[in-house]
Amino acid sequence: MKKVFAIIAAALLTLSASAQDVFYPGFYLGAQAGVNYTTSNQWGLKPLEHLNYPNIQLTAGYDITPVFGLRLALSGLYGNYPTPVDNTIVGVFNYAQAALDATFDICNIFRYRSNRLLNPYIFLGAGGNYRFAANEQPNLLGVAIRGGAGFDIRLNDLIDLTLECQDNNMFDKFNTLADREGQGYPFDQNIAALIGLKFNIGAHKARKAAAIAAAEAAAAAEAARLAAEEAARKEAARLAKEKAEQERLAAQKAAEEARIAAEKAAAEKAAAARAAARAAEENVYFTIGNSNIRKAETSKLDHIIGVLWEYPEATVTICGYADKETGTPKSNMKLSEKRANNVAKALKAAGIEDSRINVKFFGDTEKVSDKREENRVAVIVTK
Q1: Which of 174, 199, 187 is nearest to 96 (CA)?
Q2: Residue 44 lies in a domain
Q3: Is residue 28 part of a domain?
Q4: Which terminus of the chain has fewer Cβ atoms in its 10 Å neighbourhood, N or C?
């Protein structure tokens, strides 16, 4: 169980360190939707009439460094334009635009933090656009230069919420379909505001794989350490066993040589030692008003049980007490009885026969000590 906890702790620490400190290059995918604002110097429309058409964008990118990355963007759907007949009347067309953008994370210029909540960025790019299905107008293929800024709002390691504003600058006649009086304009504009999700697939997988690898390495190191400790323990046990065996043989030889001369003295000494070891005493203390045996007191029971098992002819007397300053004489008598009986139950559960156990209880009629807490006790005596 200790090994399992150590592995889990190593994994959590590694995951935490990885998530906070290490940058992993990786791919991401994005999907955004929003609205267009199309412009033209020849339009007679009011500004808000340019905002009637939706825009969608799909992206696939790669973060090369904490600051710099590249992404491929595919966007479009609808645009609008003033018709040649009357530039206050709006026509509608479909268009698709593909662009390659260079992205720059502003905050990471100063310090990289993978768990930062808000990551502002800017981008510059270029690509091509294709206008089609325009009312009574030909299809048109052109180029575009674009730029913009946005925010990635971190939801978790895998997903960001993205807010982006972009300015797409196209060649003349993308949405200004006809020059008037020979006056041309260098470009038309399509400004879009977008919101969507970004899925950090590559970095998430790399971070997770690195964390798992580090956790496995830490677990392997912990397993190696435990194996080394176990090998050292076994070696120490083997040496101790050899030494004990050598000492036993030497003592056996010495005892055999002195057996005749010391037989009587050894027998008397063994009998005296047996009697002394058999006479054991322990005080099991309880908390106020409680008869449950605390874990801290179980070693005392283990001592008494060991003596009773070693000396099958020995018997044990258990005397329960309660402190006079707490409770009533009647309740204290019952409490001391429960304390003594609980100790007896523990001895019986360890295999000590009922016939070898004698239980007594005195409530608060007798004192074991002048200290209150030392009278909350069950006294155990073997003989």
Answers
A1: 174
A2: yes
A3: yes
A4: N
